[in-house]
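Usage

Read records sequentially. Each one opens with the input sequence:
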Amino acid sequence: MNKDDIESDPLNTNNYRIEKLPPRKKSGFERGMELVGIPLAIIAFLLLLYVVDLPFLHSIDPAILGTRATARLLELGTAEFSQINVAMLAVFIAGIILWITEAIPNYLTSLLVILALILTGVIPEREAYAQLGHPVMWLNILSFILASMLVKTDVAKRFAIWSVVTFGRNTTSIFVCFIVINIVLSLFISATTAKATILLPIFMVVAAVYGARGGKQKNNFGRNLLLQNLYQINIAAGAFITGSGANLLAGSLIAGAMLWEADFAYYRWMEAALPLAIINILLAWFIGSKVFFRVRKEESVPQLEGGLDRLREELASMGAMRFIEYKAVLILVVVLGLWVTDSYHDISKTSVAFMGAIVALMPGIGIVKWNDVDIPWHLMLFSAGAYTLGAGFTVTDLPNLVVDAAFTAMGFSDESPFSVLFLSLTGLMIFSSLVFQSKTMRTLVFIPIAIGTAQKFGYPILSLALPVALLIEHVYALPFNSKPAALLYVTDHYSWRDTAKFGVTMLFIAWGMIIVWAETWMKWLGYTPNGVFG
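and closes with the structure output:
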């Protein structure tokens, strides 16, 4: 961040635009990972494909396979079907190594994964390329169009600034304002990075007002404000199935496993996830501001002359709401209304987003032009690779085979307690966020495992898969765990130790909360009929 600009006017929101943030320097460990990534991926791929013999991939019991995998087994025969499972595992492990080490850009890894799955015969060429047209891919693209509408018209910025200057009378009310802002924006924006980009200039100015300027001028108010916003940006996204592409992917994987008999309606995800998200956010506020980073009395009053008046001036300079802003709000409200009521009209969430995007782009009556739309195509290509892996999992049923072999090797019987399975899967899911940099990858790895575990032991799919899915957005503990985490870390308002202390604590609390949730609210909703320990 350009310190000269900030020092000259720390209350100017333009000084905190994302393009003014410097690229984050990688640590020595990250650079080391980058160097070993490519050779390690190649070695793992070749070993798994040609050297290592995994018996469970060659003695496959058709009784544990899904419908698509069974059809492929009958089509290819046991020997060839076993070989594509070996190839699927080799491509998957190599891809995971490249994604984690970031030895090459993530989108390039995705392109290599797609090509490898085709050349090894795991999935047909046409099916692999078709993943770019996955409904979730389209929903992501359309959501970026709707988000661009919010940015171009300044509706999101106006709402955020208005909330802070209207209700931000003291430090507590400021924190509450940002909780509300993050939840409301998550209703409409399916990209956590986009939310972070919109909110960053606003909470940076508020931090400066209370004497937090970053670097040597850190204070606990600033630490709290940024770490709380990082947490809220992610966790509020988990409250809605449209909050991120990973949520939608999880819903699709679960619905597909249930033969689409229980597709996730918008409100079904929300009724399970929104109250949990709010409770977690409030717990994080208490842990941050009352335990780890207690705001001292002198930090709880404005330190700069003018205080929040600068934000009031910026709000005033925007003038009265324009007609185009009202149109943007109307489009978003209609889209949200159709999403919430999707179980009544049976119009898919993607089709609803299509309607909103078409109106937003329509000449004469629309709001944005194509050149105004900011779609991160590198993220789209990355997602296409992840969905192609998902297609490979479907035709090979590799997660189910791995789960069956692993539990058999560990001596689990068909009467294994549900509590052991629940605690193992949710623990793996939430703490995997310390290693995996992609929510999509964690979703692709752990949701099929949860589904396979439920099927193997005869439990309802939703009893394990939904609690695991509700942990997708816990990606805030370390600076490299997500793009918003990396973005906020370079502001230099908190240290590695600060974010690790706060973040890892919240991971443990969130794990405890999902157990409590399964014993109470989700049990009442019928997702975990007997609770965890019942």
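Summary fields computed downstream for this record:
- The two ends are 53 Å apart (CA to CA).
- The chain is about 70% helix and 0% strand.
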